Amino acid sequence: MANAYLFSIMATVAIFTLLALSLNIITGYAGQAMMGIAAFFGIGAYTAAILTTNGTPFLLALLAAMVVTGVFGALLGVISLRLQEDFLAITTIGINFVMAAVFNTLKITGGTLGLTTKKPEIFGVRMNNFHFFILTVIIVVIVCLLINKMRKSWFGMALASIENDPAAARSFGINVSKYQILAFIIGTALSGLAGGIYSHRMGFISATDFAFTVSIQVVSMCVIGGLGTIRGPIFGAILITSLPEILRFADNYRALVYSLLLVIMVRFMPGGLLGDDSPIWKLIVKGYRKFVPRKKTRADLIAEEAVSAGAAPGTQSVKQEGGLA
Amino acid sequence: MEELMKIEGLKMYFGGLKAIDGFDLTVNKGETLGIIGPNGAGKTTLFNAICGVYKPTGGKVTLEGKDITGTPAYKMAKMGFARTFQISKPLRGLTIFDNVLAAAGVHEYTGIGSYFHKSHTDDIEDKVEEIILETGLAEVANKKASDVSLGYLRRLEIARALVTDPKLILLDEPCAGLSNFAINEITELILHLKEQKRSIVLIEHNLPLTMKVCDRITVLSYGKKICEGTPEYVKNDKQVIEAYLGEEDND
Q: In chain A, what are the domain boundaries?
């Protein structure tokens, strides 16, 4: 039985890892403030639940959940073009509250009573927590590989440019609106997939599962782990999801604990515990480099050659600039 | 001389404010054209109206005879307009090398299809390296843009413009905020681009620099052209002197 409990937690961790990775695409890579990911998590969850109740095979229902959520994500993407930063954050918070109310009201989503789902079958086996865990981990691994490929592509370069400076991005040919909408579609579709798995793993869903606090929880995962990295959201999801199990005694104050953590992180370590600039991560990299030397990039080679050719680092012009002060 | 870009009767109004009010300009291939004017004359607004940041209220912009008025900024970049910013806009989280590389992908940003094309290929890296050496950014190539001084960021702006193989380079105050030494370096760089027979439009407050590098100069004041000609001609124009120094007291 101990194993069943463990797998139940691990399945939850895996699902929230997927959800955190989905938010990371929108907020981490494309730089769009998104505080309402739970709304899209919910759209996916209800879509898949309604479909399987009507006899659609589980995997097909997951696919449909992705598509439906992605369509809603595209709508939000279009809205996001007119809003920036704080305004987008507030709008997405609003969307989260509206969607939670909609889930609570509509007949098709079961209203206040919520929806009960049947445990689905894959290849003739009725899925238990262990199966959900394995399925989600496989999806997470695939998603990580796809994100890794994205970061090495022009698509990833476009998102990085937009995240850093949209006006600069436009000046070298990036259609910022298009990429922003694409990021919203991809991110929300993934959150819909996570939702579809979630509703079937839980067996029962209601509007409170997709409340604003859940969005904050997912934002915390990304921020505490490190936005804009793959390892960050994964680490954050594991930490934040297992935290309530460890901090059971503080159950009533969960929101308070998250908020405090979030404030402390943003104030003292905005890059996250495992972000590129975090001292912890730098230490890990340093230890790792003792065994595996870093492969030099073209940029390193150019810089080394220039430095050895004469100009010491922190060259003439820098010194001259300093002379101004 | 062959005509590259032509602006006819360009108007850019913000509510009741006429920032640009009927502006004409012709830029020929291979020439360096300076645009000067007192603070608030509308120089940067003019760039923004040309480059698609703003949609002009009226008038026409043509590139090699083709009407391109009001085309969005990203499309202008693909058409061969490369602009730099008065306030540097580096991608702070990326290295200088990757900053230049991001701009080198100007024709690669096609949407979802760009997912399937690797960014750091040998061809692109060769091209980026060439531009980095040309613009004197080699020693900071592997530094993050947030960690280098303003002088380098200015050169980065120019490097990003060059790497897109532009037909026309629009430089918006490349020397703003620099020390004399750094200004000389940028001047050298602009003279080097001039030798390559590139077509350049330069906005600059630094008059000695403008006089030195430009073939022709246009003077803008309150959204209108008040003078145009060779540096020598402009320097001695009565209206220009008035715009800069104020009217002479006749009493």
A: 2-273, 283-324
pLDDT tens, position by position, B130-189 = 999 999 898 998 889 999 989 899 999 999 999 999 999 999 988 888 888 889 889 999
- For residues A226 and A276, is the Cβ–Cβ distance under 8 A? yes
* Nearest chain B residue to A161, by CA: B91
B85 alpha-carbon distance from chain centroid: 7
Neighbours of B221 (CB within 10 A): 19
B83 to chain A: which residues are within 8 Å by CB? Answer: 171
**Cα gap A66→A110, rounded to integer Å:** 21
- Cβ-nearest to A320 among B53, B110, B181: B181
pLDDT in tens, B73-119: 999 999 999 999 988 899 998 999 999 999 999 999 998 888 999 98
Of B105, B107, B139, the CB nearest to A306: B139
Q: What angle do CA A20, A24, A26 make, to 5 degrees?
A: 125
Mark which residues 142-161 of A lie under 8 Å from B by CB. 149-150, 152-158, 160-161
Query: Distance (Å, rounded) from C-alpha A259 to C-alpha A267?
Result: 12
pTM: 0.89
Residue B175 in tokens: 């020397």
CB contact under 8 Å between B78 and A173, yes or no, is: yes
Provide ipTM, 2 decimals: 0.89
Tell me if B151 and A321 make a contact (CB, 8 A cut-off).
yes
**SS3 category, B212:** helix
Chain B contact for A173, CB < 8 A?
A: yes
Range A2-273 has CATH code 1.10.3470: yes
Q: Is A174 on the interface with B (CB under 8 A)?
A: yes
What is the token pair recorded at A186? 């991809």
The chain A residue lying nearest B98, using CA atoms, is A299
What is the gyration radius of the CA atoms in chain B, in angstroms? 19
Q: What is the 3-state secondary structure (H, E, C) of chain A?
A: CHHHHHHHHHHHHHHHHHHHHHHHHHHHHCCCCCCCHHHHHHHHHHHHHHHHHCCCCHHHHHHHHHHHHHHHHHHHHHHHCCCCCHHHHHHHHHHHHHHHHHHHHCCCCCHHHCEECCCCEECCEECCHHHHHHHHHHHHHHHHHHHHHHHCEHHHHHHHHHHHCHHHHHHCCCCHHHHHHHHHHHHHHHHHHHHHHHHHHHCEECHHHHCHHHHHHHHHHHHHHCCCCCHHHHHHHHHHHHHHHHCHHHHHHHHHHHHHHHHHHHHHCCCCCCCCCCHHHHHHHHHHHHHCCCCCCHHHHHHHHHHHCCCCCCCHHHHHHHHHC
